[in-house]
Amino acid sequence: MNKAHILGKKALNWGLDLVLPPRCPITGDTVRTVGAISPRAWKEITFIAPPYCTCCGIPFAIDLDMKGLNPDDFLCTDCISSTRAFDQAKSLFVYDDGSRKMILSFKHGDAIHLHTTLAPLLCKTGVEFLSPDSIIVPVPLHWMRLVKRRYNQAAILGNEVAKLSGLTCWPDALIRTRPTPPQGHKTAKDRKQNVSGAFDINPPYTKKLSGREIVLIDDVFTTGATLEECSKVLKTAGARSVNILTLARAVKE
Ligand SMILES: [Zn+2]
Predict the structure, then answer these.
(1) Would you tell me which of 75, 229, 231, 238 could form a disulfide with 242, CB atoms 3.0–4.6 Å apart?
(2) Is the previous residue joined to 203 through a cis bond, with omega within 30 degrees of 0?
(3) Ligand 1 center to residue 212 CA distance, Å?
(4) Global pTM value
């Protein structure tokens, strides 16, 4: 693209902003740039801060005094009682009434530009996962759902995280082998059954995954059933590690 084209595009965006100023998709408030989130929407978000489980990233409801304690020793009961298929998981904020509209707008509401605001924050949250050898792999949608929804929010996020971190993203390394009904209100056990065997490695990547450090990206970590299933498939294909980054994390009431 030459200089004249860039200037023309900037002028067009400036003109559009004058006529249709960008708005926050959550509150409808006017914001400075497309994809920005208004201060009123940010106020509703509960960011995850220590103490949290050092394996799955779930925040602890109790206010622990961490003085003199090793944060690496904090594990939740789920991570103590069962072996996780992934190495570590971290999320940016809690999935609750304050963040639900943001996530749903990004997922279904065509507020696709939210990735410009959310991906840099996700990079900060997962900075220890994003080593120079890491490969970003988003959780895939089944092609039928992709046609219906028109985009995969995890792939958009994954591509942006990769771009900001100077890493490679393999958006099609994982595939869904069958459509799965929405996890919605299913119990943890039903969710596990629902996604069991629903993922596989896209054949061109079978040999490429051996020894790789994978950062698996999705929008929400609910029970972890989907992310566990994807991690299993990646580890079986030879991935050395699978760390998970999600925007939101469901917390048990
Ligand atoms: Zn845990």
Answers:
(1) 231
(2) no
(3) 23
(4) 0.86
